[in-house]
Amino acid sequence: MSDRVDAQVHKIRAAVLRTKGGPLRIEPLELEGPRDDEVLVRLVATGICHTDIDMCDHWDGADGPVVLGHEGAGVVEQVGKSVKSFKCGDHVVLSYQSCGRCRHCRSGHPPHCEHFYEANFGFRRLDGSNALHRSGVRGHFFGQSSFATHTLATARNLVKVSKNLRLEVLAPLGCGLQTGAGTVMNSLEASSGAGIAIFGTGAVGLAAVMAARIVGADPIIGVDIIPGRLELALELGATHVIDNRHDPVASRIAAITGGGVAYVLETTGNPKMRQLATEVLNPGGTVAIFTGATGTRSLPGGRKSLGIIEGDAVPQRFIPELIALYRAGRFPLDRLVNFYAFDEINRAIADAKRGETVKPVLRISEP
Ligand SMILES: [Zn+2]
Ligand SMILES: [Zn+2]
Predict the structure, then answer these.
(1) In this predicted structure, what is the pLDDT of residue 53?
(2) What are residue 220's phi and psi, to 5 degrees?
(3) What is the whole-number distance in angstroms between the Cα of residue 97 and the centre of ligand 1?
(4) I need a labelling partner for 177 at 20 to 30 A (CA). Which of 280, 290, 325, 362 fits?
(5) Is the bond leading into 315 cis (omega within 30 degrees of zero)?
């Protein structure tokens, strides 16, 4: 098969959201493409990220049904004419999309892309088109919509990976794990000996725990309400854990540190935890928040809050770094993952919501 083909229509199957809160239903759809700057990827697996679940629960249906999913991993099947860096058969991890043209993209900071929202949450290409329009469904979520057998991506949101590694394990690197690890290593640049508290030990929080251990942070304090997750946090590098159903977080952190911490990652989105984060920070400390807000806000005592997007990670640089750490046994991301068949997607989402599964990964096809 030639690498270079004209745009055509592909029969695919995808999990479509037509009802607020789900369930998602797997339906046959028609996908047009790839365009000259796109790559057609057959998905082998996809992670389910908290943002997929939020989108599902808050979708209002006004602009029509959508395909979610933004932690895809798969094999390149077709390559558009102007794509030089990928070829058929390449194994790839899919990440977030960026425009490539704005000043932030051109200066190497795609998480700050001026078109980040449209490119990732617009459910269309930046030119307004939609490869699933024949089926009356919107795709291109995070430049991928990976709850599908096939999808389109571009060189900007694809990362080539080794064929020796299991794609199903690497899938969640594209968003959740990159975000958690990137927050510690890129956004906060936490260094050896810095105290760090991680509120919420889901996928983002546990990736942050592993990254905190890698940079030598100490103490590393995990806070959650699910005992199984706290145990996992201890195994992955937390020096202390606090179950905030029973334990007073502020006084426990004061007792552990003799004061407070330099950094808090507030991954729960709970306003009370946000308030608590400020209370346990040392003067000059930083709380990282994951609400979609960007930029820095000043808090009393020289403290600040920092809005995190994708852990300030450039996927083509950071994901290979994380894979190297995984191979060295220092970033054991496989410990976070539970696998499900593609048609078990609604059960996977339910398990993630209950906190029973940290990171669900759907198996979509054989590598
Ligand atoms: Zn941009
Ligand atoms: Zn995500």
Answers:
(1) 96
(2) -120, 110
(3) 9
(4) 280
(5) no
**Looking at the CA of 175, which ligand is closest?**
2
What's the gap in Å between 343 CA and the centre of ligand 2? 20
In angstroms, the Cα distances linking 229 to 59, 249, 252, 337, 358 are: 28, 17, 18, 12, 8
Question: pLDDT tens digit string along 311-343?
Answer: 999 999 999 999 999 999 999 999 999 999 999
Rg (CA), the chain: 20
Query: What are the angstrom distances between the C-alpha of 17 and each of 63, 137, 151?
Result: 12, 9, 16
Q: Report which bound ligand comes closest to the CA of 114.
A: 1
Q: What's the angle, vertex CA 79, arms to CA 76 and CA 84, rounded to 5?
A: 105
DSSP label at residue 237: T
Ion ligand 2 residues within 5 Å by Cβ: 49, 51, 175
**What confidence category does residue 358 fall into, taking pLDDT thresholds of 50, 70 and 90?**
very high
User: Does residue 105 contact residue 99 with C-beta atoms inside 8 Å?
Assistant: yes
CB environment 75-106: b (16+ within 10 A), e (fewer)? bbbbbbeebeebebebbbbbbbbbbbebebbe
Considering only CA atoms, which of 215, 205, 191 is closest in space to residue 288? Answer: 205
Give distance in angstroms: CA of 119 to centre of ligand 1.
9
pLDDT at position 7 is 55
**pLDDT tens-place string over residues 87-115:** 999 999 999 999 999 999 999 999 999 99
